[in-house]
Amino acid sequence: MSSDSDQIRQKVRGGYSAIARKEKSSCCGPTSCCGSVDPSILVKNLGYSGDDLAAVPDSANMGLSCGNPSAIAGLKEGEIVLDLGSGGGFDVFVAGRRVGKTGRVIGVDMTPDMISLARKNIAQYQKASGFDNVEFRLGEIEHLPVGDGSVDVILSNCVVNLSPDKPQVWRDISRALKLGGRVIISDLLLKKPLPAKVKESVQALVGCVAGAATLTDTRKAILAAGLSDPEFEEKAMAISAMIDTNEDLYQELLSAIPGEKIDDYVASYTIRTGKA
User: Fold this and answer.
1) Domain that holds residue 18
2) In whole angstroms, what is the distance from residue 190 CA to residue 212 CA?
3) Confidence band of 13 (pLDDT split at 50, 70, 90)
4) Where are the alpha helices (DSSP H) in 67-185?
5) How far apart are CA 233 and CA 104, in angstroms?
6) What is the count of structural domains for the chain?
7) pTM (predicted TM-score)
8) Whole-angstrom Cα distance, residue 203 to residue 208?
């Protein structure tokens, strides 16, 4: 199991390293990998406002979103926020403006190329916002590089589905969260199991589809981690309306489910839970 998990991490890390180096475009959910979706249009369609984007460096928006967790997190001035799988730093920079100069936002990513890119973006963010309140740490979301009970809010945007050990992700979320803290995650979840052909696809894994868990398993993992009973909100915009089926990944998915639609199997959800 450990060997399989390491192989999955290596595949995901390799795929996202290529995205960070701009050797390939993104391929997670409704993103620019499809060839017809501009990342700036995508994030507005997902609910990011003009104010959200004001201090975000252009290279931080890589079209890797499947939702906007920080828009619904109700972030407050002075809070400490942790973003799982922070990529180029997009949600970190959005959240940084909301928690202000007395708050702190920490981005965690397991891909060195993504951490390097995000850190390069800090100077532009500081100049635009006037805040020195963000940082990026290399680490896995199953073993977060933060202290016990040290953060007020945990966010994640289309990342947990990539983990080969999702129960451990939720356990470490619970460990890192303060009492009374909250979790707001946007992620892809399965409505029913995917065909074996899809689950074996490396491209689909990096694209956030093959690694997605079911709603039932996700609820069980959250409760087992000691977090509160989660709320699941399916996004109004269906996956099939957000992708261009000319892209290789989605052609592969469609060929594996003849006569069906992708959103019969997978959808983008907002997951809300916390630590009482």
Assistant:
1) 2-274
2) 6
3) low
4) 90-99, 112-129, 166-176
5) 27
6) 1
7) 0.78
8) 9
